[in-house]
Design goal:
With 60 residues, this protein is mainly alpha-helical. 72% of the residues lie in helices and 0% in strands. The longest helix is centred in the first third of the chain and has 23 residues. The radius of gyration is 13 Å and the shape is elongated.
Length: 60
């Protein structure tokens, strides 16, 4: 996995985590819909090859 691909993947994960934290801080239908949409977009990108997901990674 290239450094650029890893950076793109990391940004996607960060965005998903921010959406989840937003929902946890203020549960509501709008926040839930945003989380679900973000997760679905991530899953679709992974399925279509639009984003490369590392087989293994280390959290710093």
């Amino acid at each position: 996995m290239s450094k650029a691909n890893r950076l793109d993947w990391s940004r996607q994960v960060t965005l998903m985590n921010e959406r989840i934290k937003s929902f946890q801080a203020n549960p509501g239908q709008e926040q839930l819909d945003a989380v679900i949409a973000q997760l679905q977009a991530y899953a679709e990108a992974a399925r279509s090859g639009g984003i490369e997901i590392p087989a293994q990674f280390t959290v710093n």
